[in-house]
Structure formats: structure tokens, C-alpha cells
Amino acid sequence: xxxxxxxxxxxxxxxxxxADKVLAIIESRKxxxxxxxxxxxxxxxxxxxxxxxxKLALExxxxxxxxxxxxxxxxxxxxxxxxxxxxxxxxxxxxxxSAERKSSKQIALILPHMSDYTSRIITAxxxxxxxxxxxxxxxxxxxxxxxDRYLQRLVDRGVDGMILFPQGRKTCSDQVLxxxxxxxxxxxxxxxxxxxxxxxxxxxxxxxxYEMAQYLIAKGHREIGYTSNAIENITSREERYxxxxxxxxxxxxxxxxxxxxxxxxxxxxSRVNEMDPEQAQFIxxxxxxxxxxxxxxxxxxxxxxxxxxxxxxxxxxxxxxxxSDIKLSALTPxxxxxxxxxxxxxxxxxxxxxxxxxxxxxEKQLTIKIQTEIIERKSVSDKGVTV
Length: 387
Fold this sequence. Notes:
Layout: H1 14-28, E1 36-37, H2 40-47, H3 51-63, E2 67-70, E3 74-77, H4 96-101, E4 105-111, H5 116-131, E5 134-140, H6 144-157, E6 161-164, H7 174-181, E7 186-189, E8 200-203, H8 205-218, E9 224-228, H9 235-250, E10 260-262, H10 277-284, E11 291-294, H11 297-309, E12 319-321, E13 338-340, H12 343-358, E14 367-370, E15 373-375
Parallel strand pairs: 4-5, 4-6, 6-7, 7-8, 8-14, 9-10, 9-11, 11-12
Antiparallel strand pairs: 1-3, 2-3, 13-15
Helix pairs in contact: 1-3, 2-3, 5-12, 6-7, 8-9, 10-11
């Protein structure tokens, strides 16, 4: 058959044209109830359209009760009173058989790693997806190429929508751009791509860090340092650092280069209870520093244990704060004051936004910021200085 032209005079949307062609195939092949209908991939090749267009066409027919879809099995012709398909009258109502057999939508969640933080995201997303009667597919990507491969495979499988926690990148990947152009529903979480308008939901890292710096200043601290893993194009790390800098500037506190330390190697979460040479060098080189903000809780816990190994009292001599509020932060020898990221609100906002796109919402792309909160424990001393 000839590819469908998008400039057809009827001005139908492309997926509606494909739906009409599928009905013609059903009639010409004299398909019987419960016979398989051509798949998304077959229709895409047959008519020269994208798999998403084919998917929308089959979903349209499913909504009309003409076909039903089963997960990982395919699309099948529905039955009616005459035992066949009626293109006219039958398209106006959904048959009971198709309503019972209609498959749940599939939502994929792609994450860069498993950690305390991402495990909370998984639990929260799963709870929200179930509220929408959808199935969740979970994938972990080892690197950027692996991430792109998963995205393509999920598109080929015809998943209804995706939530992506991307690997650290300078710019949006070609695969994500392709999905955006093809209008495949995708929501980015906990990262933001500034060069392209795409739906994203992320914590307000800048505000969270800014408020933590304000908290330390209100406690009387003026010699405040900052330590983190290298930024490496990760927007959350960049924004936390910027929040620290802006808070000092807004309160007239000089930014001292010697008080800023980016690690040459990432902090090892499995060894945070050991003395870390990099953190020891940073602490030892700044005897006047009274507080240190850390880019995440693992760095904060490593800094805390290193200080204790050096016989530097926490918080009496050095106050230490983190970011994320992982479970371990409350269990350290000195329970850690930190910034909590609300994974429940993150998941709820991401899933609600994604379902709008799955249901073909025509709103412009949205960026949703989730507010953080300071969790006060025992790792900060009060210097008794009024602001």
C-alpha cells in the first residue's frame, strides 16, 4: 500500500487516516472476532508512519469497541451481535468483550542507579501509577548510551509514557529530542534541560540550598564553606552551589575560594564512615571555618566522620549540613541536619503531568518545581549572633 500523505484534502489527523485504513484491512481480509489485527510495527511499515501514529490509530479503534488490546500479545478484532465488525453503527459504542479485555496503560520509569533516594522515587511513582490503573515498567541505565537504548526499546514496545531521571548531560540527548518531536509522552524528573522546552518536574535545589545557607547565617555562622562532588553538568549540583553563593552575597558575607571544595573523585557511599583524605585536607586547611554545607548527604556524612576521626567536635567546632535526607542521615553519631526532597510530591506531579500527555493534552510544556524543607537535627551549633 502507498504511504499516507499528511496533506490529504480531508485534513484528517494522520492517526485517524491510519484507523480508517485498518478498518479497510479488516474488511478486505474478512477477519473474524478475536483474529489478530496488524500490529503497530506492521502498520508503521505499511503506511510509512511512526509507531506512535499506529498506536494512536489502534487506541482509537479500541475506544470505539472495534478492537481490544492485550499486553505483550497484540491487538484483536472485537465481536458484536452479528459476530463481525460494523464500521458504522458498531463504532458508536464499546462492546462488553472489548471493555473487559482492554489492556492497562504501561508507564516506564528509567533511573540512573539504585539508591535510598531513587528507591523512594520508585515507591512513590508506583503508588501514583496504580491510582491511574496503569502498569509500571522499571529500568536502570548504566550510562548515557544505555539510557538511549532503553528509551528506543520502550518506544518500539509501544509504552504509553515514560518518566526519565536522566544521566548527567550537558544537553538533552538526541533520543529525548526525537521523542519530543514525535510527541511521545515523556516527563523528565530531578533534572532540567535549559536548551529545549520539555516537560520536567524537579526539586527546587537552588531554593533549598539558599534556605539552608540562611539557616546557618541565622544561627550566627559567617565562615561557611561548601563541599561537593564535581558538578559534571548535573543541574541539581550546579543549582545547590549557586544557592550557597547567592545566599552569602545577599547577606553581605564574602565568598572565600579556600572555603569551596569540589572533590577530585566522587564520594564512595560504601565508605562514608571512614576518614576521607580529601575531606580531611579541606577541614584541616580551614581552621576558621565554623560550618560547611555539603552538596549531598553522602558527602556530608563522609565529612562528619572525617571530622570526628580528626577529633574536630561536631557541631561545637564545626557544623555540618547535607542535602536529600537519606535514611542514614538520621543514624550518624551526630544526627545530620539536611534538606529533605519530597519524593511523594515529585512522583505525584510527574505522573499527573505524564497522564495529561498520554491523554493528548495540548498544554504547552511545563516545568514544575517541588519545594524542599530543612530537617533540623543535631549537627549545627548556635553561635548566638543576631542577623
